Amino acid sequence: MTIGDGDGGGLLFPRDLHTMDPVAEVISADARRSLIAYPDLVVAGPLFAAAEQVPGGWQIVCPCDPLPQGARELLAARLRGWAPADGRAARECHEAALRLEAGERDEVTVLARRFRIARIEQLMRTGPDGPEPPRPTDLDPLRPSRERSLDFIPTASSGGRDTADLLTAELLCQYLDEAARTGTEPVEPFLAPVQLPPMFTVAERTGKLWRPGTRLYRLPQEARDSLAAYFRHVVPAVEQPGAADRAAYAAAADMMQDRRRRNDIAVAGRRFRIVRVERMVLVGPDGPETPRPCDLLG
Questions:
Q1: Region of residue 97 (left: phi > 0; alpha: psi -120 to 50; beta: else)
Q2: Which of 157, 158, 187, 240 has the smallest number of CB atoms closer than 10 Å to its CB?
Q3: 161 pLDDT higher than 60
Q4: Residue 15's pLDDT band (boundaries 50, 70, 90)?
Q5: pLDDT band, residue 3 (cuts 50/70/90)
Q6: How many CA atoms lie within 13 A of 208 on its CB side?
Q7: Max mean pLDDT range (6-15, 26-35, 275-284)
Q8: Whole-angstrom Cα distance, residue 134 to residue 198?
Q9: Treating both helix axes as pointing N-terminal to C-terminal, what angle do 88-101 and 68-82 enclose, rounded to 10 degrees?
């Protein structure tokens, strides 16, 4: 192999080049750049979802809800839907659903299947120019598929020292600092962070602040499409702008759906951005973290 003088150790390439995953390395480099460009972490609040224990981790089985009780009731409805018409199995599903609806449990075992309400933290990075937009390495098809898959929470590993582990540890440290500042620390102090795929939302700048929307999307283009629909349908019907602004909004809608995949747009004196939302679950030896006492209506 060619040897050089200006590289680390005199080697043109690292000795373990054959073991490196080039895609993972590019994603890690993208994440490191994000830490520099958007150094501050904003804790946007948790979501809650029912998960079933499966080999290797926990499978989310219901949509997320902003309240623990909402997630319990979604799981109760799912259990009722699984129940047969009568018999012992039907009674077992019905009794578990009642306990969930009464807010008595964050975990139930039904027909030898274990379910738990998992707490999913939402986080956004910000920098001098505002919240972080989608990264170049985020999955971003121009025509998103209609297929939807629910998240999987892998069992937390013992941890390593590769770049991904270090970046996740950095995220956890920033998160714990912010949680301590706001008094929302985890009850269990020895939980390991597991990152889920990011989601995306639309934010509008109001004065010096950015106001993110409440709707989350799996892909950046889905968020762009929602903003285009707002420009094209909601603004004319609800806000009723003048003819010039109406034309500007129509043009902005077309721009949000062209092939350039733009993440920022200004129209009629307003500024919007597609924002990246990181998601993290804290996982312990017994599974994902459940709702905390500080969670509203828990």
A1: alpha
A2: 158
A3: no
A4: low
A5: very low
A6: 2
A7: 275-284
A8: 9
A9: 170
Query: What would the 3-class secondary structure string for the chain be?
Result: CCECCCCHHHECCCCCHHHCCHHHHHHHHHHHHHHHHCCEEEEEEEEEEEEEEECCEEEECCCCECCHHHHHHHHHHHHHHHCCCCCHHHHHHHHHHHHHHCCCCCEEEECCEEEEEEEEEEEEEEECCEECCCCCCCCCCCCCCCCCCCCEEECCCCCCCCHHHHHHHHHHHHHHHHHHHHCCCCCCCCCEEEEEEEEEEEEEEECCEEEECCCCECCHHHHHHHHHHHHHHHHHHHHCCCHHHHHHHHHHHHHHCCCCCCCEEEECCEEEEEEEEEEEEEEECCEECCCCCCCCCC
Q: Give residues with Cβ within 8 angstroms of 143, minimum separation 6.
A: 221
What gap in Å lies between CA 222 and CA 201, rounded to an integer?
9
28-37, 128-137, 235-244: segment of lowest average pLDDT: 28-37
From the list 281, 262, 263, 283, the residue with the least C-alpha distance to 273 is: 263
What's the residue count for the chain? Answer: 298
Q: Hey, what are 86's tokens?
A: 């009568």
Neighbouring residues of 124: CB distance < 8 A, sequence distance ≥ 6: 41, 42, 44, 131, 132, 212, 275, 276, 277, 278
Report the alpha-carbon distance of residue 206 to residue 127 in Å, rounded: 16
The residue among 83, 218, 216, 207 whose CA lies nearest residue 150 is 218
- The Cα–Cα gap between 233 and 140 comes to 24
